[in-house]
Design goal:
Layout (H helix, E strand, L loop, with lengths): L1 E4 L2 E4 L1 E3 L4 E5 L10 H7 L4 E4 L16 H15 L3 E6 L1 H12 L4 E7 L8 H17 L5 H8 L2 H4 L2 H12 L3 H13 L14 E6 L7 H10 L4 E5 L6 H4 L1 H16 L1
Parallel strand pairs: 4-5, 4-6, 6-7, 7-8, 8-9
Antiparallel strand pairs: 1-2, 3-5
Helix pairs in contact: 1-11, 2-3, 4-8
The protein binds D-malate.
Length: about 260
């Protein structure tokens, strides 16, 4: 599917047939982080594996705010038409919450994957500033080692193929896109107040060993969203869709099959 966004034609990779499911990536990544999950889901769903503006193959400028990413998600949803499921990972989840704040949408079921509703605290914002300075000076190479360490569990880090694929995704991101992500995450508002108002079926997933958005964050989000289910992926770090694509795909398939048909 092609979409016009900020005077650019953006290609959204699409696979399979069935109810529509959008997969939204996190920082410092692109849609390829969802490849294994997308392959599996495409047996039953029409899967859209998107790159946020400025990331991967998306030529549009990255806007530097979560609102801007939310606007892009809204444009994709509008073009997809009809009810759709959205699985949003980490920063993608922050963008999804920002979309829920700004407008009702045709999102009919949600999966919040390794993400949180709370805004950054002071220490978090200071860390974003340091990372912005690092990517300005040295691009993606300046943050790749630290991010691999934080995104994967110890077991994930010992899987050479996985580490290699992850490094390749991170290293191809443009410094401007990474700076946009960091500024957007630093400045995003707290979304805890939105959770009780979420009225579509929601699944919350976290990795057992997630050090960026720990299971306690996922559990507290799920308990604040009416009727939400919480699932912990044993042994996985933050990046559950790459560390455990089979388990994540199976739980998303079950959730979206029950809620979208
Ligand atoms: C992500 O995985 O999208 C980010 O690491 C989340 C964050 O830094 O808050």
């Amino acid at each position: 599917m092609d979409l016009e966004w900020k005077s650019q034609t953006v290609r959204i990779r699409e696979f399979g047939q069935g109810p529509s499911v959008l997969l939204v990536h996190g920082y410092p990544l692109d849609g390829a982080m969802w490849s294994g999950v997308a392959r599996s889901l495409s047996e039953r769903f029409r899967v859209f594996k998107l790159d946020l503006p400025g990331h991967g193959e998306n030529p549009a400028p990255a806007g530097g705010t979560m609102e801007d990413y939310a606007g892009f998600l809204e444009a994709v949803l509008t073009q997809v038409k009809g009810p759709a499921g959205i699985a949003a990972f980490s920063m993608g989840g922050y963008a999804l919450l920002s979309l829920l704040r700004r407008s009702p949408s045709n999102a009919a079921a949600l999966a919040l994957v390794d993400t949180r509703a709370r805004a950054d605290d002071e220490a978090g914002r200071t860390g974003r500033e340091a990372a912005i300075q690092a990517v300005r000076a040295g691009g993606a190479a300046a943050i790749v080692d630290a991010m691999v360490e934080k995104l994967l569990s110890a077991a994930g880090r010992s899987n050479e193929g996985l580490v290699e694929r992850l490094r390749r995704i991170i290293l191809r991101q443009k410094p401007e896109a990474l700076e946009s992500d960091l500024a957007a995450m630093r400045d995003r508002p707290d979304s805890v107040d939105l959770l009780p108002g979420i009225s579509v079926p929601t699944l919350v997933i976290t990795g057992e060993a997630d050090v960026i958005t720990p299971p306690s964050e996922g559990e507290s989000m799920a308990s604040a969203i009416p009727g939400a289910r919480y699932l912990q992926i044993p042994g996985a770090g933050h990046l559950t869709p790459m560390e455990r694509p089979g388990a994540v795909a199976a739980s998303l398939a079950e959730h979206f099959a029950a809620t979208l048909s």
